[in-house]
């Protein structure tokens, strides 16, 4: 049970005051299961409410189950179905993606073709590498491969920080 396992892991790592720490700092993108409209949640009154928002933002129908996550009396699915990269109206939003594309932090595109796809407000490059990344997102590889992916993500973030002159 993917969602039960995810809930248990989230409960294990979140401190008791996580909802207070996250409010107005963490913005979670979710999609209303009936209307298909995107919603950004950034205020959490309880730890349980924060957990439900995180679960809703991780719910991919069929893959994660058949029943969308209930949050604040309504049912929700992953925000990526309606807006993969929401931009906040105030301040700078740093966009992060596991797919090579035009996001601030993302893998370098190494493909031979420069064909872009726009999916749910995210520009990604059409490449074999990105298809492999999608497969890895749905079917996680071995622990060793996951370690390499984490290191690549770290390097992507460092490259962004250097490009923005936030790090030397």
TrEMBL record:
Residues 1-91 form the PNPLA domain. Pfam families: Patatin. InterPro entries: Acyl_Trfase/lysoPLipase, PLPL, PNPLA_dom. GO terms for biological process: lipid homeostasis; triglyceride catabolic process. Keywords: Lipid metabolism. SUPFAM superfamilies: FabD/lysophospholipase-like. GO terms for molecular function: triacylglycerol lipase activity. Signal peptide: none annotated. A motif (DGA/G) lies at residues 78-80. One of its GO terms (cellular component) is cytoplasm. PROSITE patterns: PNPLA. PANTHER family: CALCIUM-INDEPENDENT PHOSPHOLIPASE A2 IPLA2 -RELATED, PATATIN-LIKE PHOSPHOLIPASE DOMAIN-CONTAINING PROTEIN 4. This is PNPLA domain-containing protein. It comes from Lates calcarifer.
